[in-house]
Amino acid sequence: MEVFGSVIDKQTRCKHYHSKYDVIAIKFKCCNAYYPCYKCHEESVSHSIERWEPEEFNQKAVLCGICRHELTVNEYLNSANQCPNCQAKFNPGCQLHHDLYFKV
């Protein structure tokens, strides 16, 4: 699974967010491509972000950078900030940006 943007390692960290817990990438609905964050998306493309609608939350749109498991939006939003497959911890601060990716 390819991750676009300013990726700095194989676990999906980028130049903007690179703590030990910044290990997810979001599939942007507008371009059907994974980016580590909205800043990487903005720097890479010339279109606006299109957010996932609640009725689309069963779509796989989040990638765990540790095990490469794809989560649905619902799985991610209900994950308690950890991968259901490998239990890697996700950055709880990402919740502050959910409204950029998902219509919640």
TrEMBL record:
Keywords: Metal-binding, Zinc, Zinc-finger. PROSITE patterns: ZF_CHY. This is CHY zinc finger protein. Residues 7-88 form the CHY-type domain. PANTHER family: HELPER OF TIM PROTEIN 13, ZINC FINGER PROTEIN. The lineage of its organism: Bacteria, Bacillati, Bacillota, Bacilli, Bacillales. InterPro entries: Mito_Tim_assembly_helper (IPR052604), UCP017292 (IPR016694), Znf_CHY (IPR008913), Znf_CHY_sf (IPR037274).
